[in-house]
Amino acid sequence: INSVVYFGISPIVLIISSAAAYIAYIIFSAVFSKNARFAEKCNITVSAGDKSVTACGIVDTGNSLKDVFGSSDVIIADEKCVAELFGNEYRNDPTLKTRYRLMPCGTVGGETALDGYRCDRATVCDGKKTVVLEKPILAISKTKISDGCRAIVNPKIFM
Question: What is the pLDDT of residues 85-99, one digit of tens each?
Answer without folding.
Answer: 988 888 888 888 888
